[in-house]
Give the backbone structure.
Amino acid sequence: MDKKTSPSLFDIEHPNVQETPTIRPCPPCSDMSHYPRALDEYICRRSDRKLNLSLLVTPHHKHMRIVDYRLGQYKLKCNIFDEMAAREKLKKVYTLVEKQDSNSWRTVGFSKEAIIPGYFRNADAYVMSRVYDHDGRPITGGIAKLVHEKQIEFAEPEPIGKKPAGLKEIFIDDPEAINAILHLPEVTPLYHPFGKGVMHPHFILEVRIGRRNLWVAAEINDAFGHAKLDILTLPRSIKERRYLAWMVTKLVEELGETSDISSVFSITMVEDISCGQVLVDAGFKDSGQLTRHMQSEEGRLSDALMWFFRIAPKANKARKMAFDPELPMIPVPIKKPLTDFDFDDDEEEVQEHHDEDEDED
Protein backbone atom coordinates (compact mmCIF):
# COMPACT_ATOMS: atom_id res chain seq x y z
CA MET A 1 0.00 0.00 0.00
CA ASP A 2 1.39 3.36 -0.98
CA LYS A 3 2.18 5.74 1.82
CA LYS A 4 0.45 9.07 1.79
CA THR A 5 3.00 11.85 1.47
CA SER A 6 2.81 14.63 4.00
CA PRO A 7 1.70 17.99 2.61
CA SER A 8 4.26 20.69 2.02
CA LEU A 9 4.28 23.76 4.22
CA PHE A 10 3.50 25.82 1.15
CA ASP A 11 1.50 24.99 -1.95
CA ILE A 12 2.41 26.17 -5.43
CA GLU A 13 0.18 23.97 -7.57
CA HIS A 14 -2.99 24.54 -5.50
CA PRO A 15 -2.82 28.14 -4.32
CA ASN A 16 -6.52 28.27 -3.38
CA VAL A 17 -6.22 25.85 -0.46
CA GLN A 18 -7.55 27.74 2.55
CA GLU A 19 -4.90 28.98 5.01
CA THR A 20 -2.09 27.17 3.17
CA PRO A 21 0.89 29.47 2.58
CA THR A 22 1.60 29.82 -1.12
CA ILE A 23 4.92 30.80 -2.64
CA ARG A 24 4.91 32.07 -6.19
CA PRO A 25 7.48 33.94 -8.27
CA CYS A 26 6.96 37.63 -8.81
CA PRO A 27 5.83 38.31 -12.37
CA PRO A 28 9.11 38.77 -14.28
CA CYS A 29 9.48 41.72 -16.60
CA SER A 30 9.42 40.99 -20.32
CA ASP A 31 13.13 41.70 -20.75
CA MET A 32 14.35 39.88 -17.63
CA SER A 33 16.99 38.13 -19.70
CA HIS A 34 18.75 41.48 -20.05
CA TYR A 35 19.33 41.62 -16.28
CA PRO A 36 21.41 38.54 -15.39
CA ARG A 37 22.31 39.92 -11.95
CA ALA A 38 18.71 40.49 -10.85
CA LEU A 39 17.43 38.56 -7.84
CA ASP A 40 14.88 35.75 -7.98
CA GLU A 41 11.88 37.22 -6.17
CA TYR A 42 9.06 35.25 -4.57
CA ILE A 43 5.91 36.20 -2.69
CA CYS A 44 4.68 34.07 0.22
CA ARG A 45 1.11 34.67 1.39
CA ARG A 46 -1.90 32.98 2.93
CA SER A 47 -5.40 33.35 1.58
CA ASP A 48 -6.61 34.62 4.97
CA ARG A 49 -3.97 37.40 4.79
CA LYS A 50 -2.33 36.29 8.03
CA LEU A 51 1.04 35.81 6.37
CA ASN A 52 2.88 38.10 3.96
CA LEU A 53 6.54 37.75 3.00
CA SER A 54 8.82 38.73 0.15
CA LEU A 55 11.71 36.35 -0.48
CA LEU A 56 14.71 37.63 -2.44
CA VAL A 57 17.02 34.81 -3.56
CA THR A 58 20.56 35.50 -4.79
CA PRO A 59 21.52 32.26 -6.58
CA HIS A 60 25.18 33.21 -7.00
CA HIS A 61 25.73 33.74 -3.27
CA LYS A 62 23.29 30.99 -2.22
CA HIS A 63 21.42 33.17 0.26
CA MET A 64 17.93 34.60 0.61
CA ARG A 65 16.86 37.91 2.08
CA ILE A 66 13.50 37.95 3.86
CA VAL A 67 11.28 41.03 3.77
CA ASP A 68 8.78 40.45 6.58
CA TYR A 69 5.57 42.45 6.94
CA ARG A 70 5.04 41.35 10.56
CA LEU A 71 2.16 38.99 9.87
CA GLY A 72 2.01 35.35 10.93
CA GLN A 73 3.68 33.14 13.51
CA TYR A 74 7.48 33.14 13.60
CA LYS A 75 7.68 29.36 13.90
CA LEU A 76 5.60 28.93 10.75
CA LYS A 77 7.78 31.45 8.93
CA CYS A 78 10.95 29.67 10.00
CA ASN A 79 9.62 26.33 8.76
CA ILE A 80 8.83 27.94 5.41
CA PHE A 81 12.35 29.38 5.18
CA ASP A 82 13.89 25.99 5.96
CA GLU A 83 11.85 24.30 3.25
CA MET A 84 12.62 27.08 0.78
CA ALA A 85 16.33 26.80 1.60
CA ALA A 86 16.24 23.06 0.96
CA ARG A 87 14.40 23.52 -2.32
CA GLU A 88 16.72 26.26 -3.61
CA LYS A 89 19.89 24.72 -2.07
CA LEU A 90 20.54 27.86 -0.03
CA LYS A 91 23.23 28.12 2.63
CA LYS A 92 21.77 31.10 4.46
CA VAL A 93 18.62 33.16 4.99
CA TYR A 94 18.57 36.55 6.68
CA THR A 95 16.36 39.53 7.40
CA LEU A 96 16.75 43.12 8.59
CA VAL A 97 14.48 44.08 11.49
CA GLU A 98 14.17 46.71 14.16
CA LYS A 99 15.61 46.01 17.60
CA GLN A 100 12.25 45.25 19.24
CA ASP A 101 11.60 42.48 16.70
CA SER A 102 15.03 40.85 16.94
CA ASN A 103 14.20 38.78 20.04
CA SER A 104 11.27 37.13 18.26
CA TRP A 105 13.62 36.00 15.50
CA ARG A 106 16.09 34.70 18.07
CA THR A 107 13.44 32.42 19.53
CA VAL A 108 13.16 30.54 16.20
CA GLY A 109 16.88 30.06 15.63
CA PHE A 110 18.08 33.30 14.05
CA SER A 111 21.23 35.08 15.27
CA LYS A 112 22.22 38.74 15.19
CA GLU A 113 25.26 39.34 12.99
CA ALA A 114 25.45 43.09 12.40
CA ILE A 115 23.70 46.44 12.79
CA ILE A 116 23.05 49.16 10.20
CA PRO A 117 22.47 52.45 12.05
CA GLY A 118 19.65 54.53 10.59
CA TYR A 119 18.61 51.88 8.07
CA PHE A 120 14.92 52.48 8.82
CA ARG A 121 15.50 56.26 8.83
CA ASN A 122 14.66 56.68 12.52
CA ALA A 123 15.67 53.21 13.69
CA ASP A 124 18.62 50.86 13.33
CA ALA A 125 18.42 47.55 11.47
CA TYR A 126 19.52 44.29 13.07
CA VAL A 127 20.78 41.69 10.59
CA MET A 128 19.27 38.40 11.81
CA SER A 129 20.51 35.24 10.05
CA ARG A 130 20.03 31.48 9.90
CA VAL A 131 22.78 29.32 8.38
CA TYR A 132 22.54 25.78 6.97
CA ASP A 133 25.12 23.01 6.79
CA HIS A 134 26.16 21.11 3.67
CA ASP A 135 23.15 18.80 4.02
CA GLY A 136 20.70 21.70 4.20
CA ARG A 137 20.03 21.39 7.94
CA PRO A 138 20.00 24.48 10.18
CA ILE A 139 23.11 24.86 12.30
CA THR A 140 22.15 23.70 15.79
CA GLY A 141 22.63 26.52 18.26
CA GLY A 142 22.78 29.19 15.57
CA ILE A 143 25.71 31.10 14.16
CA ALA A 144 27.34 31.35 17.58
CA LYS A 145 28.39 27.71 17.09
CA LEU A 146 30.40 28.60 13.99
CA VAL A 147 33.93 29.94 13.98
CA HIS A 148 34.45 32.91 11.68
CA GLU A 149 36.91 32.19 8.92
CA LYS A 150 39.06 35.27 9.45
CA GLN A 151 39.36 38.24 11.74
CA ILE A 152 40.68 41.08 9.62
CA GLU A 153 42.57 44.11 10.88
CA PHE A 154 42.83 47.08 8.54
CA ALA A 155 45.45 49.81 8.44
CA GLU A 156 44.81 53.23 9.95
CA PRO A 157 42.56 55.29 7.65
CA GLU A 158 44.36 57.59 5.26
CA PRO A 159 42.55 60.95 5.15
CA ILE A 160 40.83 61.85 1.91
CA GLY A 161 42.25 64.99 0.34
CA LYS A 162 41.08 67.23 -2.44
CA LYS A 163 40.26 65.92 -5.88
CA PRO A 164 43.44 64.99 -7.78
CA ALA A 165 44.20 67.28 -10.70
CA GLY A 166 43.23 65.94 -14.10
CA LEU A 167 40.70 63.46 -12.73
CA LYS A 168 37.28 63.69 -14.39
CA GLU A 169 34.23 62.13 -12.76
CA ILE A 170 30.92 61.34 -14.45
CA PHE A 171 27.63 60.57 -12.71
CA ILE A 172 25.58 58.08 -14.75
CA ASP A 173 21.85 57.68 -14.07
CA ASP A 174 20.61 56.42 -17.43
CA PRO A 175 19.28 52.86 -16.87
CA GLU A 176 20.46 51.59 -20.25
CA ALA A 177 23.97 52.96 -19.73
CA ILE A 178 24.10 51.49 -16.21
CA ASN A 179 22.93 48.09 -17.42
CA ALA A 180 25.53 48.17 -20.20
CA ILE A 181 28.26 48.76 -17.60
CA LEU A 182 27.07 45.80 -15.51
CA HIS A 183 27.55 43.52 -18.52
CA LEU A 184 31.24 44.45 -18.83
CA PRO A 185 33.81 41.89 -17.65
CA GLU A 186 35.60 44.53 -15.54
CA VAL A 187 32.66 44.64 -13.10
CA THR A 188 33.14 42.32 -10.14
CA PRO A 189 30.90 39.22 -10.31
CA LEU A 190 30.23 39.63 -6.58
CA TYR A 191 27.77 42.48 -7.23
CA HIS A 192 24.04 41.80 -7.03
CA PRO A 193 21.07 44.08 -6.26
CA PHE A 194 19.66 44.24 -2.74
CA GLY A 195 16.10 45.58 -2.79
CA LYS A 196 12.76 44.40 -4.15
CA GLY A 197 12.24 45.00 -7.84
CA VAL A 198 15.76 46.37 -8.31
CA MET A 199 17.49 45.36 -11.54
CA HIS A 200 20.62 47.50 -11.24
CA PRO A 201 22.03 50.44 -9.22
CA HIS A 202 20.21 53.75 -9.48
CA PHE A 203 23.36 55.58 -10.48
CA ILE A 204 27.08 55.05 -10.96
CA LEU A 205 30.07 57.33 -10.43
CA GLU A 206 32.68 56.74 -13.13
CA VAL A 207 36.31 57.84 -13.20
CA ARG A 208 38.66 57.00 -16.04
CA ILE A 209 42.38 56.48 -15.49
CA GLY A 210 44.11 55.92 -18.79
CA ARG A 211 42.36 53.00 -20.46
CA ARG A 212 40.77 51.71 -17.25
CA ASN A 213 37.44 52.76 -15.73
CA LEU A 214 36.65 52.74 -12.02
CA TRP A 215 33.01 52.51 -10.95
CA VAL A 216 31.23 53.00 -7.63
CA ALA A 217 27.45 52.48 -7.55
CA ALA A 218 24.52 53.34 -5.29
CA GLU A 219 21.15 51.63 -4.84
CA ILE A 220 18.74 54.03 -3.13
CA ASN A 221 15.71 53.37 -0.94
CA ASP A 222 13.91 56.69 -0.58
CA ALA A 223 11.17 55.26 1.63
CA PHE A 224 13.56 54.39 4.46
CA GLY A 225 16.29 56.92 3.66
CA HIS A 226 19.20 54.55 3.09
CA ALA A 227 21.45 53.51 0.23
CA LYS A 228 23.61 50.50 -0.55
CA LEU A 229 27.03 51.38 -1.94
CA ASP A 230 28.97 48.97 -4.16
CA ILE A 231 32.55 49.14 -5.41
CA LEU A 232 32.09 47.64 -8.87
CA THR A 233 35.77 47.61 -9.89
CA LEU A 234 38.26 46.12 -7.46
CA PRO A 235 41.46 48.15 -6.97
CA ARG A 236 44.62 46.73 -8.53
CA SER A 237 47.06 49.13 -6.89
CA ILE A 238 47.43 51.56 -4.00
CA LYS A 239 46.80 54.43 -6.41
CA GLU A 240 43.49 52.93 -7.55
CA ARG A 241 42.57 52.30 -3.93
CA ARG A 242 43.10 56.00 -3.18
CA TYR A 243 41.03 57.06 -6.17
CA LEU A 244 38.23 54.70 -5.17
CA ALA A 245 38.25 56.08 -1.62
CA TRP A 246 37.87 59.58 -3.08
CA MET A 247 35.05 58.31 -5.31
CA VAL A 248 33.24 56.78 -2.33
CA THR A 249 33.35 60.08 -0.45
CA LYS A 250 32.18 61.91 -3.57
CA LEU A 251 29.28 59.50 -3.98
CA VAL A 252 28.31 59.86 -0.32
CA GLU A 253 28.37 63.63 -0.76
CA GLU A 254 26.13 63.34 -3.83
CA LEU A 255 23.68 61.13 -1.94
CA GLY A 256 23.49 63.64 0.88
CA GLU A 257 22.94 66.57 -1.46
CA THR A 258 20.50 65.10 -3.98
CA SER A 259 18.60 62.43 -2.00
CA ASP A 260 16.92 62.24 1.37
CA ILE A 261 19.49 59.71 2.55
CA SER A 262 20.88 59.50 6.09
CA SER A 263 22.45 56.02 6.12
CA VAL A 264 24.78 54.31 3.65
CA PHE A 265 25.90 50.70 3.96
CA SER A 266 28.14 48.36 2.01
CA ILE A 267 29.13 44.69 2.09
CA THR A 268 32.57 43.32 1.21
CA MET A 269 34.05 39.84 1.28
CA VAL A 270 36.25 39.29 4.33
CA GLU A 271 39.37 38.44 2.36
CA ASP A 272 38.91 41.44 0.06
CA ILE A 273 41.20 43.65 2.13
CA SER A 274 41.66 46.25 -0.61
CA CYS A 275 37.94 47.12 -0.86
CA GLY A 276 37.65 47.06 2.91
CA GLN A 277 40.52 49.51 3.17
CA VAL A 278 38.82 51.77 0.61
CA LEU A 279 35.81 52.01 2.92
CA VAL A 280 38.00 52.51 5.99
CA ASP A 281 39.78 55.39 4.25
CA ALA A 282 36.39 56.87 3.29
CA GLY A 283 35.24 56.94 6.92
CA PHE A 284 33.04 53.82 6.97
CA LYS A 285 32.93 51.57 10.03
CA ASP A 286 32.25 47.86 10.15
CA SER A 287 29.45 46.64 12.41
CA GLY A 288 29.70 42.88 12.14
CA GLN A 289 30.80 39.82 10.22
CA LEU A 290 28.21 38.02 8.10
CA THR A 291 28.71 34.26 8.14
CA ARG A 292 28.89 32.47 4.76
CA HIS A 293 27.29 35.47 3.10
CA MET A 294 29.09 35.56 -0.25
CA GLN A 295 30.49 33.13 -2.77
CA SER A 296 33.82 33.78 -4.47
CA GLU A 297 34.45 33.45 -8.19
CA GLU A 298 35.92 30.03 -7.43
CA GLY A 299 32.66 28.93 -5.81
CA ARG A 300 33.83 29.04 -2.19
CA LEU A 301 31.48 30.41 0.45
CA SER A 302 33.03 33.23 2.44
CA ASP A 303 32.18 35.52 5.31
CA ALA A 304 31.49 39.19 4.60
CA LEU A 305 31.82 42.45 6.51
CA MET A 306 28.96 44.91 6.96
CA TRP A 307 30.01 48.57 6.68
CA PHE A 308 28.01 51.72 7.43
CA PHE A 309 28.29 55.50 7.21
CA ARG A 310 25.88 58.03 8.73
CA ILE A 311 25.20 61.21 6.77
CA ALA A 312 24.58 64.17 9.05
CA PRO A 313 21.52 66.41 8.44
CA LYS A 314 22.12 69.21 5.96
CA ALA A 315 22.02 71.88 8.67
CA ASN A 316 24.55 70.05 10.83
CA LYS A 317 27.96 71.73 11.25
CA ALA A 318 29.77 68.39 11.06
CA ARG A 319 28.14 67.80 7.70
CA LYS A 320 29.31 71.17 6.38
CA MET A 321 32.85 70.39 7.52
CA ALA A 322 32.72 66.93 5.95
CA PHE A 323 31.69 68.27 2.55
CA ASP A 324 33.79 71.45 2.56
CA PRO A 325 35.98 71.22 -0.57
CA GLU A 326 38.83 72.94 1.25
CA LEU A 327 38.90 70.28 3.97
CA PRO A 328 39.14 66.48 3.97
CA MET A 329 35.73 65.38 2.71
CA ILE A 330 35.18 62.78 5.43
CA PRO A 331 36.80 63.59 8.79
CA VAL A 332 38.25 60.44 10.33
CA PRO A 333 39.76 59.95 13.79
CA ILE A 334 43.47 59.23 13.48
CA LYS A 335 46.42 59.71 15.78
CA LYS A 336 48.70 61.54 13.36
CA PRO A 337 47.93 65.04 11.96
CA LEU A 338 45.68 65.26 8.92
CA THR A 339 47.47 65.58 5.60
CA ASP A 340 46.20 65.49 2.05
CA PHE A 341 46.79 62.48 -0.15
CA ASP A 342 50.10 62.73 -1.90
CA PHE A 343 48.68 62.86 -5.42
CA ASP A 344 51.60 64.90 -6.79
CA ASP A 345 53.28 61.85 -8.28
CA ASP A 346 50.06 60.76 -9.93
CA GLU A 347 48.71 64.05 -11.29
CA GLU A 348 51.11 64.19 -14.21
CA GLU A 349 50.40 60.56 -15.09
CA VAL A 350 46.63 61.08 -15.00
CA GLN A 351 46.93 64.16 -17.20
CA GLU A 352 49.08 62.23 -19.66
CA HIS A 353 46.44 59.50 -19.86
CA HIS A 354 43.74 62.04 -20.65
CA ASP A 355 45.94 63.56 -23.35
CA GLU A 356 46.36 60.11 -24.89
CA ASP A 357 42.60 59.61 -24.90
CA GLU A 358 42.08 62.93 -26.67
CA ASP A 359 44.69 62.01 -29.29
CA GLU A 360 42.93 58.71 -29.94
CA ASP A 361 39.65 60.53 -30.47
